[in-house]
Design brief:
By secondary structure, the chain is mostly beta strands. It has helices at 2-10, 144-154, and strands at residues 17-18, 27-28, 31-39, 42-53, 60-68, 81-89, 92-101, 111-116, 121-126, 129-134, 160-166, 169-185, 188-199, 204-211, 217-225, 228-238.
Length: 239
Amino acid sequence: MRRLARLTTFLFATLLFATAARSDAILPKPVTATYEVTYRGMRAGQLTFKLTRDDATGRYTYETTAAPSMLARFVISSAAVERSVLEIGPDGVRPLEWSLEDGKSSTDRDGHLKFDWDRKVATGEIEGEKIELPLEPGLQDRLSIQIHVVTSLLRGQEPGLIPLIDDNRIKRYSYVKKETTSIDTALGKLDAVVYESTREGSNRQSRFWLVPKMEYLAARAEQIRKGKVETVMVLQSVQ
C-alpha cells in the first residue's frame, strides 16, 4: 500500500484547472484523469484521480483509486482509495481532512488526519500510530499537494519548497523547473515543461511533464530511485 501512497504523492499535477478572473481566485474544474502505470518495466495497472466540488460548501474532494494488474493485486487492492477534502481561497490550498483505506479487512495500514487551522494542529492515526503535528503555512497532505503545486503555477508562482505530512512527520519537497520539450501521448504530441521534485536526505526524485496549454495537466510522471527509473505514469484519458 505504501507504493500507492508514493504514487499519489509524486504525481502532483494530474488535474485540469480553469483560470478565474483574479489570479488569487483560481478554482479547479471537476475532472477525472486516468494514468497507465508501469513498475520497473512491468505493467502495474491504472490509477484514476477524481476531483469534485460541493457547491453548497465550496469544498473539494480529491481522491485516487486503483485498477491494478493481476500481478500488482498482491500489493494494491482494487478497493483501495485515498481521499483529501480541501478548500481553495486567496491564500491558496488548505487540506481539511485526509484518509487512506487500503481496501483490506485489516485497518493496520489505513490512515486519517484532520487539519484544525484554528488550533493550528493536525491530528489522527496512520498505520496504528497516533499523530499530532503542528500546522504551518502552506502545509499539505499527500493529495492536496498536487493541487497546491498546479495552483501556484497558474498564478505565475514557482512551487518552491512545500511542507507535507507523510507517515508520522513533516517532509519538505522542492520543485524545480528543468526544461521544455514535447511528448507523445494517447492525446497526441504535447508541448510540456519538465519539473523535478526532490527531498533532502532521500535517494528518490520525481520528474513531471506538465502541459501549459492544458493548464499544467501532467502528461507523464516518473519516480526515480538511486538514478534508475522505477515507476512511470502516462496519461490515458481526461474527462
